[in-house]
Specification:
Layout: E1 3-12, E2 17-19, H1 20-23, H2 31-38, E3 42-44, H3 51-66, E4 75-79, H4 90-98, E5 105-108, H5 114-127, E6 133-141, H6 151-154, E7 159-169, E8 174-181, E9 189-190, E10 214-215, H7 217-239, E11 248-251, H8 256-266, H9 277-280, H10 287-297, E12 306-313, E13 317-324
Parallel strand pairs: 4-5, 4-6, 11-12
Antiparallel strand pairs: 1-7, 2-3, 6-7, 8-13, 9-10, 12-13
Length: 327
């Protein structure tokens, strides 16, 4: 039986740190207000680096940490909602930046769940023996799609990238994955694209909204807490395990209140959650691989640990992945 396992991680964030006090000079807010409602103290913001450049830097670190020749990579899957272009894909640009040829490279758009979707796809390609070594990246430059005059959203988001190398193995690394979506809830969290505009329109176009993130915070909180609990339960049920068998949870880093609610409801010790949103904010597709890389570098994980990664995002989407840490 062929399985897949994570053999390395890598991450990169821009050098520019924006603390809550700096935002208070732009909108009506303050450090206490932001921290008490979100748990976020600061975030990283691009000072000119493009999405593909940030992604490539994280990818290069993952390749170096894996100790493999980059030519072993036979596929790139990249999750983002903030590409530099609709075409070519950000994955194609990363492929060129890495100097790789003749391999499939493509983007996944699933909001903040994008990395889980990408990991699930990579796992299936390896298990079906169509690929052996896949680079999976989550990357965002959310600073370019934020309305910096909206205090309800501008305090939440940051820029960064995280990456993993997934490789075929005789050991079971990825135990199971679970994903889902519900498109009729899309208005709760949106990021508009190019509006319809052509000379053949016979009616006025009223869909030309600004390309900024908008969110109904109350409804997203209710959705997020419910769906994270469901996603964790699903991978436990699929693997015939219980929370007592899980060593760590790496959640999407959106809001500390969401994480605390999930922990209380499922009676999970807070120490099991890997949290870094206080320093990076919500980096969407990048948040889980960023947290995963940081925990790995701090040597928090040990071989044999069972880890759940769980996320929710715009779409609306959700998902979880359960893995054995066998690096």
């Amino acid at each position: 039986m062929v399985y897949s396992k994570i053999i390395s991680t890598g991450a990169y964030v821009p050098a520019r740190i924006v603390k809550n006090d700096e935002l208070s000079k732009m909108v009506e807010t303050n450090d206490e207000w932001i921290t008490s409602r979100t748990g976020i103290k600061e975030r990283r913001i691009s000072s000119g680096e493009k999405t593909y450049q940030i992604a490539a830097k994280a990818a290069k670190k993952a390749i170096k940490n894996a100790g493999i020749d980059k030519e072993e990579i036979d596929m790139i899957i990249l999750a983002t909602i903030t590409p530099d272009f609709f075409m070519p894909s950000t994955a194609n640009l990363v492929q060129a930046e890495l100097g790789l040829d003749d391999i499939p490279s493509f983007d996944v758009t699933a909001g903040c769940t994008g990395f889980i979707y990408g990991l699930q796809i990579a796992d299936q390609f390896i298990k079906s023996k169509q690929s052996k070594t896949i680079l999976v990246i989550g990357v965002e430059v959310l600073s370019k799609v934020i309305d910096w005059s909206d205090r309800n959203t501008c305090v939440l988001f940051g820029d960064g990238a995280g990456a993993v190398i997934l490789k075929n193995s005789s050991q079971e690394g990825i135990i199971c994955t679970y994903t889902g979506s519900q498109g009729d809830l899309q208005e709760r969290l949106t990021l508009p694209a190019v509006p319809l505009k052509n000379p053949f329109l016979h009616i006025p176009n009223n869909n030309g909204r600004p390309s900024n993130i908008s969110m109904n915070g109350k409804e997203i909180f209710q959705f997020a807490t419910r769906i994270m609990i469901k996603s964790i339960s699903q991978v436990l049920n699929k693997s015939n395990l219980s929370m007592d068998d899980i060593d760590y949870i790496v959640p999407h880093q959106a809001n500390i209140r969401i994480i605390d609610y999930v922990a209380r409801t499922l009676k999970i010790e807070r120490e099991k959650f890997i949290i870094n949103l206080d320093r990076f904010g919500n980096t969407s597709s990048a948040s889980i691989p960023l947290a995963l890389d940081e925990a790995h570098k701090k040597k928090i994980f040990y071989p044999g640990n069972r880890i759940i990664m769980v996320a929710f995002g715009g779409g609306l989407t959700w998902g979880a992945a359960l893995l054995n840490w066998i690096m």
